[in-house]
Amino acid sequence: MKDAALSIDHLLKQAREASGLNDFGADWFLGPLNRLVDETNRDAGLIAPDAGAGQRIQGALVDRLKLVQYFKDHPSASAEVIEPACAIVGLPRTGSTVMHRLLASPAALTSLWWWEAAFPFPMPGEELDNPEPRIAAAHQMVDFLLTEWPDFESIDPMEAEAVAEEVILLDRTFLSTSYDSMMPIPGYGFWQAEQDHEPAYRDLLKFMQAIQHQRRIRGEQQRKWVFKTPHHLLGGMDGLLKVFPRIKLVMTHRDVAQVLPSYCSMCASLSIGASNKYDPLKQGEYWTQRFKQGLDRFEKYRAILTEDQLIDVRYEDTVSDPIRTTRHVMKAIGLDCTAVDEQTMLDCIRSNDREHRPKHKYTAEQFGLTSESIADDFRDYHRKYLTEKRG
Predict the structure, then answer these.
(1) pLDDT tens, position by position, 288-329
(2) CATH number assigned to the domain comprising residue 347
(3) Alpha-carbon dihedral of residues 314, 224, 158, 324, nearest 10 degrees?
(4) I want to staple 207 with a disulfide (CB 3.0 to 4.6 A). Which of 7, 169, 226, 245 is the partner?
C-alpha cells in the first residue's frame, strides 16, 4: 500500500480478489469504512497497518461479500426468525462474560460460538452440515492471537468453542467499539458512538439469520438468543432497540474503579505492540469519557423503556451466588430455571474457573487514573446502582 497507509480502493479490490465475489450489497457501510480508515491513517500510528488493521478490515469486507452471496445461494435463510431472550449491556469487566456464559448454558437459550463469529460462512469445499474446518481454523486463530497478544489470556477468556460477543460480527459493519479498543483512534470512537447504528444492526440480523440457517441444516433446535457486548452501551444501543424494540436488557454493574483500569489494560495489550503513538495516559482519559457518555446515554433510554425491559445485576451478586443471580435473570426474561439448567450452570462455572488463568496485573496509575478520580467521575452512577438499595 502506498506510503504504508490504508487505501479504501485497495482494500475493496483485495476483498473482491480474495473472495472471487463482487457484490457488497447496500453501500451504506462505505461511510463508516472511510471514517475508520481516515482516522487509522491519521492517528493510530500503526507499525504495519496493512498487516494488522488492513487484514482485519479486508477480512470484514470479504465477509460482507459472502453475506450477500449466502442469501443468493440460500434464499430461505431470509425467513429465519431471530428471537432474542435478552442482551447483556453493561460496561466491560462488570461480570458480563460470566453472566453471558451462564445464561447461554440452559437448553432453552443459546449464543454465538466464537468460531461462528470468526468464520460465519462455510469455507471452500465445506459441507453446511459439517463446520469442522472452521472450528479447526478458529482454534488456530485463537492460538495465533494469544501469541500476538500474550497478556490477553489473563484478561479475558478467548476460546474457539466458547460463547462469543456479537460485536465480532458488527466489526463487519465498521461501526464497532472493537476498533478504538485495538487502536488509539479516539476521533473514530467518539464519532461512531453518535451515529445511527440501525443499518449495522440490520446487517447483524442478516449474519444471525445465516448462522441460524446453518444450525438448522445441522439439525439443531431453534432457541432464543442471548446477546452480549459492551458495544451496545458504548455506541450501538439505538440500533439494538430499533431492530429488537422489545428486547430485555440485562445491565451488569460494578464499581468503575474495578472496571476502567482493567479495560484500559486490555486495550493496552492490543495496542502497545502495534502502535508507535500509543499513550496510556491518553487512554485512561479517553475511556473515562467513553464510559461516562455511554452510561449517560443509557439513562436516557431508561426514561423511555418499560420497566420490565430492564434487569439490573450487581457484580457482587454474580460472583457470590451465580446460580441464584442467573435464576433471577431467567425469571425476569420469562423463563423457568430447571434443576437440569442449574446443573449445566454449575458445569459452566467449573469449566471457567478463573484460577486456571494467569493473574491480570495492572494499576490505575499506569493510565493516569486514581480510585479517587474515578469515584468522582462516576459518583452519580455509583450512588444509583451500587449504593442505593435495589429492589
Answers:
(1) 999 999 999 999 999 999 999 999 999 999 999 999 999 999
(2) 3.40.50.300
(3) 30
(4) 169
